[in-house]
Structure formats: C-alpha cells, structure tokens
Amino acid sequence: MPISKDKAVTIHYAVKNEAGETLDTSRGRDPLTYLHGGGNIVLGLEKALEGKDTGAKLEVTLPPEEAYGVRDEKNVRNVPLRKLATDGTIAAGAPVRVQTADGVQMARVVAVRGDYATVDLNHPLAGMPLAFEVEVVAVRDATAEELAHGHVHGPGGHHG
Ligand code: ZN
Q: Which of 9, 71, 75, 104 is the most exposed place for a label (fewest CB within 10 A)?
C-alpha cells in the first residue's frame, strides 16, 4: 500500500553530509519504523516518501529548513556548570544535558570558563544540507493505539 498519513512505515536509510560522509545509517541493523504524518522524521523526508510503496528506493537532498533546521546563534549560551549534567567530563565537544526554561535539552559544550560553560543547543545536524538514501521495506496501517500515542510500536518502534 502506498505511504500516506497514519501509515506505519519501515525504512532502511543512510544520511550523508555535503562532503559525502555517512553520518548515520540503518544498514547493518534493524530498519526504522515510523508513523507517517506524525512529524517523527524530518519534514523533507516525509514529503519525499509520500505516495511511495514497498520496495521503492529514493535519494533526496534536503536543505537545512527541511532537515534539522537552520542554526540559531541564540541557542549558543553561557550556562552555570550546576545546570549541566553529563555521564562523562564537562569539556569542549562533550555532550551534556542542560536545564533550560523549556526543560532538559541535549547540547554540546563549546568551552568551559570558571563556573560557566558555553553550550550549543542547536541540533548537531542543524544548518546542514543532507542527502538521504531510503528504501521502503514495509507499509501498514497504524493501529489505533499507535495513532493515540503518535508513534509506532513493535519491532523498530518506540517501545520495541
Ligand atoms: Zn506508545
């Protein structure tokens, strides 16, 4: 069945940056299952997959606006170290969890100075055009429970 809103779609994918380096791929592990039309994958990819069917292969290059968004320099902030949590050491390049007014967000440390760190809350792939290679593995109707939750269940899904 063709992909449309409220289908549970299983895909294999690979994503590359402008330099052609593979940033992430499902090849070699389980494919990804997502709820189509739920904003669970990047906008441009959802658009490109609309109407495609099992077995379809596509390659699509997305501008940042249709992928992980543009960088916002307001998301680079000075934060007291006590607002940061990490499983490792707080140092430049390290991933950290930041307490913000909007809740806990993931960020990367840019620099540490005294009791403060400069952190970048932008998505690591924000501002980048990305090339996706996708193969549609399966398409099925989402269950009522999946639609209520806004994500898929079972193998490759949210709880599995
Ligand atoms: Zn659920």
A: 104
